[in-house]
Amino acid sequence: MKQEGATLRLDAIDLRILATLQRESRISKAALAERVALSATPCWQRLKRLERAGLIRGYRADLALEKIAGFATVLVEIVLKQHRYEDFLRFERAARETPEVVRCWARGGGIDYLLEFVAADIEAYQRLIDRLLIAEIGIDRYFTYVVTRTVKTAPQPPLGLIARATGVAA
Where do the domains of the chain lie, and which CATH numbers do they carry? Predict the structure, then answer.
């Protein structure tokens, strides 16, 4: 892995480390080293560099919420009243501070944001959106789409896509 200006260059071993962690975040360091064909110390050093570079945001468990308790997943498109820099900052701060917002994407093309909410049920979601409207964080319009079932979830793109994007053969 080499640093060139602001661009971080990855090699095939870096990509194998990332892909393995993506599939098995609880893998032992020894098993990771074996999977990527390195000895333990160089593998550990590479892993630490990838973490320091911010390429690994964290290690998480993918919970089966539906087996724990009922919940509703809702996708919401948001259009802001104003489009000044401070309006975007205010809205984004509120989105980050709202635990029920699990993803938030800024968009172009007429709709300013797409958010994914997870709430106990639709009534809890509605109470939450009402609180956001009352908080005056700049929402002009919102469009709610209730998720009826999850067909596929994937944490990130597969290694092949990452390899093509970086130009590194994995």
Answer: 2-61 (1.10.10.10), 65-146 (3.30.70.920)
Instruction: Find the helix packing angle between 12-23 and 159-166, rounded to 10°.
Output: 150
Where does the chain show beta strands of DSSP type E? 2-4, 7-9, 72-80, 101-106, 113-119, 139-146
**Angle formed by the axes of helices 40-52 and 12-23, nearest 10°:** 80
Q: Which amino acid is residue 114, in one-letter code?
A: L
Q: How does DSSP classify residue 19?
A: H
156-to-38, 96, 159, 162 alpha-carbon distances in Å: 24, 20, 9, 9
Tens-digit pLDDT profile for residues 39-89: 999 999 999 999 999 988 888 877 777 778 889 999 999 999 999 999 999
- CA 30-36-41 angle, to 5 degrees, is 45
- 2 and 159 Cβ atoms separated by less than 8 Å: no
Residue 113's nearest CA partner among 128, 127, 101, 131 is 101
**Which pTM does this prediction carry?**
0.72
At 1, the amino acid letter reads M
